[in-house]
Every structure is written in structure tokens, then in C-alpha cells.
Automatic annotation (TrEMBL):
Gene3D superfamilies: HAD superfamily/HAD-like (3.40.50.1000). This is HAD-IA family hydrolase. It holds the Pfam family Hydrolase. InterPro entries: HAD-like_sf, HAD-SF_hydro_IA, HAD_sf. Signal peptide: none annotated. It comes from Streptomyces daliensis.
Length: 244
């Protein structure tokens, strides 16, 4: 996109851009309650703190340090579902919990639609883009199918395509994932805006000619309108103008 040109399609990142995963303490509490496991307040706080430090919640705080044995998995975690699960359950297993089954249960919990909350302006921005005829694709580094999350929150109707790293075997910032997103929208990258929260991963879209707009990966309550600027950066493709 050249200066002053409006995008005719948008690629959105998922986690930290359109939706945010629940906090670690709520994630842990949901799994403990589901298994009927009770802890003292002190034990619960210690478990939550240790899981946070380990970076065991996908979409949550990053690990303070990745154990050397897990580094190869971590670096490639979004290329396949198996790698993603192994990386995050491996991080979780660094934390002793009351029942060893909880490490896998925590991973399962984070994939549930209830574990995710849209940012306050997600629905209105997606709905407005759809009303303008501006197509949207979700391009995500992820190891599982996020489509049920969008359906649960009533957002799927606004998404034209999903381009998920584990389904393509490559992860952002690999240009092939962004190119697949543009192809899914039927648009040249020069007409597409990539919106994400990671300058390195999402910024890779610039290599194929997309414009890039970054938002801050903040808790839902702290970012009420971070996506709204996208509306000023987009407009439906004027096919008649292109033919003149």
C-alpha cells in the first residue's frame, strides 16, 4: 500500500489482537474445579504464580525462561498441533500440581471457547468491515482449530477465511502464511492490511507488500478501542475505478 491508499482487505492476528485468553488464575481455577480438587489459598496462589512464570498458558504471559530441553519445541511450536501441545504441556509440567492429569487438562481448557474473550471493539470493527464489503481473514500462529471460538462469540460470520499455521506447516513471520491469507481474500498484498500485536511475527507481512498496523497485547479491560483505527485504514475495493 502506498501512502494515503486504503486497504481493501484485512488480515487479523488472533490472540492478543481480536481476542484474549483468560487470566492464569481463572484458567487454573476452572480446571481445578472441573476435577473437584481443592487447594488452600496459599497453594492456589503458588501454583498460579509458577504457571505464569513457566509461560504454560498459550496466549498468556511468555515464559520467563524456556528450559533448554524444550527450546527446539518452543521455537517450532506453531508448525503442528503436536508440537504446540508438547511445548505447552512441557512448560506446564515444570510446575508440580496436585494431580498429574492437570497438565493436559490445562491445555485442553485453553482451547475451549469459554477461555477466550473478545476485545470490546472486536465485534463492531469486524461487523463494520463486513458491512463495507471489506473481507477479513484470520492469520494465526496456533496449534489448534480456533474456528469454534469465533462461532461461540458470534464472530465467525464476519470472517471470510482462516489461515492457521498448524494447517499450513509454517508460522509467522514466514511470508507464505501471509501470502496464503491474501490469496484467500483474492487480493494483491499491496491492497491488504495486516493487524497484529507482535512486531516480529505480524510485521513479516510487510515483506510481501502488506501494510502493517500493530495493537498492544493488553488485558481486555485495558484496551477498549485498540482496533478502531483499522476502520480509518480500509475501504471497499472500487472495481469500477480499476476498469477506467
Amino acid at each position: 500500500m502506498t501512502a494515503g491508499t486504503l486497504a481493501s482487505g484485512v488480515l487479523f492476528d488472533f490472540s492478543g489482537t481480536l481476542l484474549r485468553v483468560e487470566p492464569v488464575d481463572r484458567w487454573l481455577r476452572a480446571v481445578l474445579d472441573a476435577h473437584g480438587i481443592r487447594t488452600t489459598p496459599e497453594e492456589f496462589a503458588a501454583h498460579a504464580q509458577a504457571l505464569t512464570a513457566a509461560g504454560a498458558l498459550p496466549g498468556g504471559p511468555a515464559p520467563r525462561a524456556v528450559p533448554p530441553a524444550l527450546r527446539p519445541l518452543w521455537d517450532e511450536r506453531d508448525r503442528t498441533g503436536e508440537l504446540h501441545r508438547a511445548a505447552y504441556t512441557g512448560l506446564a509440567r515444570q510446575v508440580p500440581l496436585p494431580d498429574p492429569r492437570l497438565h493436559d487438562a490445562l491445555y485442553e481448557r485453553h482451547m475451549s471457547p469459554e477461555a477466550w474473550q473478545p476485545y470490546p471493539d472486536t465485534a463492531v470493527v469486524l461487523r463494520t468491515l463486513a458491512g463495507r464489503g471489506v473481507p477479513v481473514a484470520v492469520v494465526s500462529n496456533i496449534g489448534w482449530d480456533l474456528r469454534p471460538v469465533f462461532r461461540h462469540h458470534g464472530l465467525d460470520q464476519y470472517v471470510s477465511a482462516y489461515v492457521l499455521s498448524y494447517e499450513h506447516g509454517v508460522q509467522k513471520p514466514d511470508a507464505r502464511l501471509f501470502r496464503a491469507g491474501c490469496e484467500a481474500l483474492g487480493l494483491d498484498p499491496a491492497r491488504v492490511l495486516m493487524v497484529g500485536d507482535d512486531a516480529r511475527a505480524d510485521g513479516g507481512a510487510a515483506r510481501i507488500g502488506c501494510a502493517v498496523h500493530l495493537v498492544r497485547h493488553l488485558p481486555v479491560t485495558e484496551r477498549p478501542d485498540g482496533l478502531r483505527p483499522v476502520l480509518g485504514m480500509t475501504a471497499a475495493l472500487d472495481l469500477d475505478a480499476d476498469l477506467t
